[in-house]
Amino acid sequence: MRTLDVVDLSAAIAEHSSRGAHIVAIRPADDPYTAEMRDGDGEVFLLRRTPIVVSRASDTGAWHDGRAGMRYRDLIPGRWDGRFVASHIAVPDGGPIADSVHHHSVTFQFLAVRRGWVDVLYEDQGEAIRMLPGDIVLQPPGIRHQVLATSPGFEIVEVGCPADHRTEFDHELQLPTTGEGPRQWNGQKFSFTSPGPSATAWDSAGFVSDDSGIGAATSGLVEVRRVRRGISEGPAPMPSFDFRFLFVMDGNIEIRFDANDAISLDAGDSITLPPSLAIDVVTEDEATVLLDVTVPRTTDN
């Protein structure tokens, strides 16, 4: 079925109805985010609401207790019909984490450290890895891992697909383990990178980015870039995307959609954008650092 992503579902239904299409079904009834319609040729297509979603760090009531005593803040309420989840995770007091060896049934999942440090064991990666601010790790589907401890004030951002995924515990496996030779988990490679000096042009002038390596590790399933202030030869072409998520790790930005429409974001804020929405990002804060996540646009959407 052909899928059309829209910002305003009601307006889209009205527009297609004026062209001779009629509605077949909607879900859910109280706050619809999808609508099936049939056009004049009898073809059924899907309208899917994908609004701009802004999450503010100032919303302290959004925090709740999650797994292993960690605090979670949902950065995409509604979770795009269950397609994506983004969480801001914190361990205010730090110390040992009451975690067991586990793995996740996901399409993809990665984490980016914002504050402090965390020690994590990963299957076939040897001794514990200490992740520091700016470090990004891809957790391939099914890789066994265990969180050991964090510093006080630790914060990390986690993005995954699908939103509602299963976490299973493996009480037989003891970490660390050491595998032999390169390995993949469900077609993906383990990837761990730190911020580096190399940088390329980003989508907006005045910024540069460096590649986290996750695009290569997932064969292009998802791209993750660290973005900071910098001078380049010019803005890079904006990628065509199905899903885009920006998190302000430090500093502040203004996202401009056109001459009359803009959203300001401070440190800890995030925004999720509808497919291939053109934006321009500006800031005067030299300390600004962003996390940029894109899922490339696919031909069946």
Question: Can you tell me about this structure?
Answer:
The chain has helices at residues 9-18, 79-82, 214-217; strands at residues 2-6, 22-27, 34-38, 44-49, 53-55, 63-65, 71-74, 85-91, 95-96, 102-105, 108-115, 118-122, 129-131, 136-138, 145-150, 154-161, 166-169, 191-193, 200-201, 207-211, 223-229, 241-250, 252-258, 261-266, 270-273, 280-282, 289-296. With 301 residues, the chain is mainly beta. It has three domains: 2-49, 2,3-Dihydroxybiphenyl 1,2-Dioxygenase, domain 1 (Roll); 58-193, Jelly Rolls, CATH 2.60.120; 200-296, Sandwich (Jelly Rolls). The radius of gyration is 20 Å and the shape is globular.
Tell me the CATH superfamily of the largest domain. Jelly Rolls
What would CATH call the class of the largest domain? Mainly Beta
Give the tally of structural domains: 3
What percent strand?
over 45%
Number of strands: 27
Q: Strand count, sense and closure of the main sheet? A: 7 strands, antiparallel
**Biggest sheet strand line-up:** 5-25-22-27-21-20-19
| Uncertain stretches of 5 or more adjacent residues | none
The name of the CATH topology of the largest domain is Jelly Rolls
Rg, Cα atoms, Å = 20 Å
From N to C, what is the helix and strand string? EHEEEEEEHEEEEEEEEEEEEEHEEEEEEE
